[in-house]
């Protein structure tokens, strides 16, 4: 049999594809790549001691050679480490991103055996395909094919099984790696600093000593920070510091907590610095089966949320109670003692139901969306392009009605509808605070899922600080981590005690079928045939935080100038959370993380992301190139018509449709242009600096030249003066009857010894050969500044005028 092409392309004929599927000879297909187990010393890439891509404390558990990534028909080496599943390309020896996934990101995996249909004229039986399907929480479904009659699939499966389901939290890779260079500062200090900022006390700085002493109970006109929950006794899932109305005592807070589910009483999440309106959060009230239970303390606490500052002239503030649940769900909770508030019990309040579905509906919706993307993507888990499936050139094959059905599948997933519901509810809350100066109390059932989504999105819309990188971190640490979103249960992590309510779906059953029926097309949700069914009560996994990040990406798309961070930052943040590489999102509450010593034992996600940004400055991909803080320095209030979400390309499509996921390609080009412009700007600044230095040097040289000219002019003046003095001396000496010869020096010539010729003419002490005998002999030079004048002053003194002008002999 001749070797078929290595990968499927649009130019391949459908008949060739059907022939390949009908023969189903994956045993022969694996031979296309000549995947022989090589000697360990033949190539360094096959020996894990030489793997340079391993992270700190990451170690290889098992590796298999000659494995095929079915999604892309690529052969390579599959490696299981204590942190991730790595697929190396056989051709390039590089890591293949699609086939590389952190173990904590794996939602489920299962072994498959697919019987191949023999060719029409082939009597021999063809071996079955031995596949391993891996489904990730990051929207990917990948399938690996193994060589028949080998133990590689079993070894890989067992290695994944051991590492993806640790018995204790401390067995996770994050604890093995330790804090390393990503040291985690105490998150309680950061939370306290955010509380200070909200109260207008940003000039205060929190410290560990302040927390230990409990001396952080600052207050302003309306609100105060309470330490009533410092030991987590009143509410184990709440933070140690709570912002509450100043008029409510700690004793009243403890009493009010007994009327709310899980003790999660109403507390302030954000307060408007101007009007004093607040966003508050809680859990549902325990109104009882007859819905007649009341709590005066709870009603007083809720009424205090409408406190008004002095000078507020708009009348009494209105209170909205936003119940995130559908009304029927709130009524159903009455059977368990829960329910919702009665407006008649809470003065000047209005109860609004948002109709957002529960965690189980969100989980099933994500499963359906993931199956849709895998079915109609370009890198499907069965290795077939969606355009070529079933021999047709349309989605799902053959006619317009099937195209319409495939498009309807996206709507049937319900994901975008759920995203829109969360966005609409958050926008409504933000509008009430910004436009009406009203206070809003938000809750769902327990107040840690839908409540966290709504309250944090409303914070993001109202406060520009939360739209910066630093503020976004503070927002997540406050409304998600400190207020007890159960990340451990929602992400399926092991618990501190060593048991987990949400077990990873690990099916040991084999599914049997034929390749044309595409076993990978089975639903990846709880209804998958290979997965044991689990009730909603047992499975607490749900993509609540992922959905919230999706909502943030929608706002970033609508307001591209309002956010300092980019969509790439959100993707890396979400990947880091799902991978469990860092400890920030471990456990279910602040209390549990403190008991487990997470901040001291694990690396910090925020330090890691900050290090990435600092490596390249403002040109890093995590920064939004179009960020303009002055353009949106107030609240964002999107109208209902603008809240039409779309698939988030950078996250939803990156595995199933990698080419189409490059929605940020234009942004990348703009970033490159900006980077080049920045380089040119730096070059310009460097050239301007050099020009300035050159100008300064020229000015310095010019000053020195002017100084030299002044010195030269002064020297010329001295020379002229010396000439005049020389002429005066000459006249004086000649008046004494001495014959003196002075050398003439030009006015513009400065001589080192202008009177040197005088010595030669009149010096009586010169030797016979003309040499000067000074200083052995007396010389006029020792008494005069004019070197060339030499005279016997004693003889001059003894002369009389008569001897000068009259000859004594003539007198005789």
From TrEMBL:
Start and end residues of each stretch annotated as Disordered: 494-535
Positions with biased composition (Polar residues): 496-513
Coiled-coil intervals, chain numbering: 670-711
EC number: 3.1.3.95
Entry GO terms, CC: cytoplasm
GO MF annotations in UniProt: phosphatidylinositol-3,5-bisphosphate 3-phosphatase activity; phosphatidylinositol-3-phosphate phosphatase activity
Annotated residues for binding of substrate: 358-359, 444-450
Keyword 4Fe-4S: no
Domain Myotubularin phosphatase: 200-652
Compositional bias of kind Low complexity: 514-535
Keyword entries, A-Z: Coiled coil, Lipid metabolism
GO biological process: phosphatidylinositol dephosphorylation
Catalytic residue list: 444
Enzyme class: hydrolase
PROSITE patterns per record: PPASE_MYOTUBULARIN (PS51339), TYR_PHOSPHATASE_1 (PS00383)
Short name of one Pfam family: Myotub-related
Family note: Belongs to the protein-tyrosine phosphatase family. Non-receptor class myotubularin subfamily.
Protein name: phosphatidylinositol-3,5-bisphosphate 3-phosphatase
Organism: Salix koriyanagi
């Amino acid at each position: 049999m001749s070797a078929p092409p290595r990968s499927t392309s649009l130019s391949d004929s459908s008949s060739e594809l059907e022939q390949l599927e009908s023969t189903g000879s994956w045993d022969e297909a694996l031979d296309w790549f000549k995947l022989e187990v090589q000697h360990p010393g033949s190539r360094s890439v096959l020996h894990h001691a030489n793997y340079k891509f391993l992270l700190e404390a990451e170690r290889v558990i098992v590796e298999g050679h000659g494995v095929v990534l079915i999604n892309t028909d690529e052969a390579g080496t599959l490696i299981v480490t204590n942190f991730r599943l790595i697929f190396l390309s056989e051709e390039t020896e590089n890591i293949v991103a699609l086939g590389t996934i952190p173990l904590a990101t794996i939602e489920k995996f299962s072994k498959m055996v697919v019987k191949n249909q023999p060719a029409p004229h082939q009597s021999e039986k063809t071996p079955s395909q031995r596949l391993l399907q891996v489904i990730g929480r990051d929207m990917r479904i990948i399938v690996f094919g193994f060589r028949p009659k080998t133990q590689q699939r079993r070894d890989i499966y067992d290695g994944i099984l051991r590492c993806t389901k640790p018995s204790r939290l401390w067995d996770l890779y994050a604890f093995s790696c330790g804090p390393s260079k990503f040291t985690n500062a105490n998150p309680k200090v950061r939370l306290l600093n955010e509380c200070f900022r909200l109260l207008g006390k940003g000039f205060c700085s929190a410290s560990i000593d302040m927390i230990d002493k409990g001396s952080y109970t600052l207050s302003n006109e309306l609100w105060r920070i309470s330490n009533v929950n410092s030991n987590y006794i009143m509410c184990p899932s709440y933070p140690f510091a709570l912002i509450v109305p100043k008029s409510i005592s700690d004793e009243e807070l403890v009493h009010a907590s007994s009327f709310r589910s899980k003790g999660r009483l109403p507390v302030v999440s954000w307060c408007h610095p101007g009007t004093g309106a607040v966003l508050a959060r809680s859990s549902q009230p325990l109104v009882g089966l007859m819905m007649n239970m009341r709590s005066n303390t709870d009603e007083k606490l809720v009424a205090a949320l409408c406190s008004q500052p002095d000078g507020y002239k708009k009348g009494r503030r209105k209170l909205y109670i936003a119940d995130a649940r559908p009304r029927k769900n709130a009524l159903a909770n009455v059977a368990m003692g829960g329910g919702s508030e009665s407006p008649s019990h809470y003065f000047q309040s209005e109860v609004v139901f948002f109709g957002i579905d529960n965690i189980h509906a969100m989980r099933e919706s994500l499963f359906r969306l993931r199956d849709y993307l895998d079915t109609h993507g370009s890198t499907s888990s069965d290795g077939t392009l969606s355009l070529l499936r079933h021999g047709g050139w349309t989605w799902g094959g053959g006619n317009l009605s099937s195209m319409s059905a495939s498009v309807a599948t996206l709507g049937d997933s319900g994901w975008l509808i759920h995203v829109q519901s969360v966005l609409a509810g958050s926008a409504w809350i933000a509008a009430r605070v910004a436009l009406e100066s009203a206070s809003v109390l938000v809750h769902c059932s327990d107040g840690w899922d839908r409540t966290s989504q709504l309250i944090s999105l409303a914070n993001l819309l109202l406060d520009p600080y939360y739209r910066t990188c630093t503020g976004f971190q503070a927002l997540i640490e406050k409304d998600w981590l400190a207020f007890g979103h159960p990340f451990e249960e929602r992400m399926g992590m092991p618990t501190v005690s060593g048991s987990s309510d949400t077990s990873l779906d690990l099916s040991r059953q084999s599914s049997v079928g034929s390749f044309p029926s595409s076993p990978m097309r089975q639903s990846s949700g709880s209804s998958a045939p290979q997965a044991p069914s689990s009730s909603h009560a047992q499975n607490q996994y749900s993509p609540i935080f992922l959905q919230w990040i999706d909502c943030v990406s929608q706002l970033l798309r609508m307001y591209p100038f309002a956010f300092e961070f980019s969509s790439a930052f959100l993707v890396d943040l979400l990947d880091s959370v799902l991978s469990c590489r860092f400890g920030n999102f471990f456990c279910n509450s602040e209390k549990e993380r403190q008991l487990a010593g997470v901040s001291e034992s694990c690396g910090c996600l925020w330090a890691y992301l900050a290090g990435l940004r600092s490596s390249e400055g403002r040109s890093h991909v995590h920064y939004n190139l179009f960020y303009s803080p002055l353009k949106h320095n107030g609240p964002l209030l999107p109208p209902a018509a603008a809240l039409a979400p779309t698939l988030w390309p950078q996250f939803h499509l990156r595995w199933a449709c990698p080419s189409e996921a490059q929605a940020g390609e234009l942004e990348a080009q703009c970033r490159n242009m900006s980077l080049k412009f920045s380089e040119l700007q730096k070059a310009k600044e460097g050239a301007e600096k050099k020009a300035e230095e050159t100008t300064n040097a020229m000015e310095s040289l010019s000053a020195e030249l002017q100084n030299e000219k002044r010195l030269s002019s002064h020297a010329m003046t001295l020379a002229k003066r010396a000439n005049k003095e020389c002429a005066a001396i000459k006249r004086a000496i000649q008046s004494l009857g001495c014959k003196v010869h002075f050398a003439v020096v030009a006015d513009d010539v400065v001589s080192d010894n202008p009177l040197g010729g005088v010595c030669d003419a009149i010096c009586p002490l010169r030797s016979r050969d003309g040499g000067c005998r000074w200083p052995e002999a007396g010389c006029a030079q020792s008494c005069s500044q004019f070197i060339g004048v030499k005279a016997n002053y004693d003889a001059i003194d003894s002369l009389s005028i008569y001897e000068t002008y009259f000859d004594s002999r003539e007198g005789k």
